[in-house]
Amino acid sequence: MSVALAVVDQVAEAAARAGDVTAVRSVRLRVGELAGVVPDALAFSFELACAGTLLEGAELVTEAVPGRARCTPCAHEWAVGMPPQLTCPGCGGTRTELLAGRELQIVDVHWEDGHKHSTPHPPTREPISEER
Amino acid sequence: MCRVVDLRQAVLAKNDASADELRALLADRGTAVVNLLSSPGSGKTALLERELLRARERSVPVAALSADLATENDAARLARSGVPVKQVLTDGLCHLEAGMLAGHLDGWLPDDTRLLFVENVGNLVCPASYDLGETLRVTLASVTEGEDKPLKYPTAFGLAHLVVITKTDIAEAVEFDEAAFRANVERVNPGVEVILTSARRGQGIGALLDRAMAAAAGTPVHVPVMARQHGHTHAGGGHTHAHPEVTGTMAHTHS
Questions:
Q1: Which of A17, A121, B32, B163 has its Cα between 20 and 30 A from that of B56?
Q2: Do A108 and B5 touch (CB under 8 A)?
Q3: Does A74 touch chain B (CB under 8 A)?
Q4: For the whole model, what pTM was predicted?
């Protein structure tokens, strides 16, 4: 839930900086396999976290990033899986480099802004109150 | 008009920035934070009680902050050791965040504190994602929790600098398979040290304090594989896309 709230906060902040955002349609998130986030649980929390904000009704699009690792001594590369295998399945080595899987990032946001829309409000209004 | 805006922000950037800020602030005054993570009932408080007493015997200035959803029982237990103790009620929130911790330390933490032990909310999911500005992160599990605990909660065990097994006094009764547990820890966090403790029998008491003192003195701590992803160092400012405005402290009050 806190991750969902963090996403909503950050998008709302970015929208406030942009100044004239009227609604957020979708948020695209990159979620690594080892990020410690369950996408289904996140989608559920996201809907709740969006309620009453500029993001109300926004769609959450998650891109899963598989975990990948490389063994430093033997250069073997593998998909870590879940639960992750972080010792080398090739040589049994423990000097592993994680290549991907810890991502937890907002990639981009699809939003509506005031331009060209029949909005009766002045452009300096608070975007959040507009949504309530 | 509908537009796509490229944000490229790490979701936890705000917390990570607050954590880095707190770590630097505390380092300046010679304080190191030890973040303790475990499931409810794994014996964090019992072990910590013994470690705090040991610290007092050695005249190490320590303090403890205990986070709980609702009760103040843990703080009352820890206070028996005689060191400064603070209870934080998270009001339903399942973890601590760096900004919240900073707020709670303000005006409470004695200036000469060498080590601050933070007993996180009993939960192995959310707390794992939040850097609290700690120097040492410790994940604990009791012998009753099953050997596959590290596999069930790979992030909590995978990001630990130190793993502590508690309640070894009843290991035999519950047929705890230490080798299997160690193998599972190794799988998600190769090279991390695992120590055995029993608060009741006194086994391994002082080890946590020793590791914490070493880390506070600047001895490099173990670097977990999960914290090693290029450009994604969890506790070290790897989130380069964070907006400069997000460094302010903040606290969610919702769960």
A1: B163
A2: yes
A3: no
A4: 0.86
